[in-house]
Amino acid sequence: MKKYILLLIGIGCFAACDDFDDLNTNVKDPGNVSGESLFTGAQKNLVDQMTSTSVNSNVFRLFAQHWTETTYPDESQYDLVNRSIPEQHWRVLYRDVLKDLDEATNVITATELLSTDDPVVKQNKLLVIETLKVYAYTVLVETFGNVPYEEALNIGNLSPKYDDGQAIYDDLLVRLDVAIGQFDESKGSFSDKEDNIYNGDVAQWIKFANSLKLRMGMLYADMDAVKAGKIAQEALTSGVFAGNEDNASMPYLATTPNTNPVYASLVLSGRDDFVPANTLVEIMQPREYEGDGETIVPGSVKYTDPRAKYYFMDNLDADSSVPETVYLGGIYGVRNVFSKFSRIGHALHTPQFSGTLMDYAEVEFLLAEAVERGYIAGDAEEHYNKAIVASVEFWGGTAAEATDYLALPEIAYTTATGDFKQKIGMQKWIALYNRGFTAWREWRRLDYPKLEPSEEAISPIPVRYTYPIVEQTLNGASWSVASSAIGGDRVTTRLFWDME
Questions:
Q1: pTM over 0.85
Q2: CA-CA distances (angstroms) from residue 223 to 78, 93, 210, 424?
Q3: Rounded Cα gap, residues 50 and 57, in angstroms
Q4: C-beta separation of 98 from 152 below 8 A
């Protein structure tokens, strides 16, 4: 009986396999994955990385001093080595974003069109992918400086050379211009299930590409005003974001593994690792202290930024003598007792809260700066006001709240302290809450607010990530050349656009 059963199984297998070569086919091989699927995965990996607050890979909220830590303050003291933080950031952007985008390009390009397919749709898909590649490379350059570029995605080359950061940036702008010029907004691209940022809307991708171009152009402002001005003018003429509805944001879902990664860190982890930093809280809610420097003078709050109630929330275990309307930020860069300070706001405890690559408020701040620098015509104050209104409304506030806030002498463009860099830099830094990387980038570029490291920090505030340690061992020659070219592989080495 046993032999009979085995014989039947053998006959069934033979009948099911027309060709024994099928047994050698790996059905899970990436070669069988569609280009569209690769794009979707890479897009999510990019937004996840830029949104994450994992101390293993994204500590930019800490660098920007929007948040600080409680039990383990190592990352806010700028220890990048213990957790190999640069390596994680590097790996995600190269392996999980750029390589998958590159493969998506290859697969979609090689896929033969059916007679019913529109070649323009295929072209638009490739241009969307190209735009995200440009974005990802800008993040790498703005994080590290010189990085692998021309040889980066060749898996057969285990020791790629590093290219000059400025040369990469120049080339990325050329690539972005080509993409902008070739998009056809009369046709579609990816489906709404494949593109989780703009649902395949090509007109929106064009706006994003132009807004990215504007941001990239302003990076040159302190080193090449003529070039920066030309790029800003071109981007504005071609069409940048015009409202919060244009934001490059990806919604998350209510269930794992597709929740917002910040929710995963703040809620699902069951840990209390972060609190708002006093650096941010005391700018958004200025008040006076008693002689001991720790006790708030009753009734001394000058004003409260309308976004504070969204950025922060009361900690029920905090000192009951402090009015509920007063937020308390943890001391930046030291060990803090979680129960003594305000907590991160409700919105970031929501699994579906979107992750954002770029938004309208950022664009309006860039335009305000471009007006001040003489790059474009217009009214800097008008753009500044639009940026703040957009930020307040994005977080859930009202236009009326934003108007009242803008009427404060400390906030109004004509009466706020400092030159345009300080006025725009301060408000932009506040508006970039929850977008740690961009807040850190703009702090380095505009030099405001004037942040200081804590007394327990092991270095000054980093102005770049050091290269991954693994690069020293596996790609030592290229690493050595790159390190020398930028002036040393240190967190204090300023990159080509970051002027003193």
A1: yes
A2: 28, 27, 21, 19
A3: 10
A4: yes
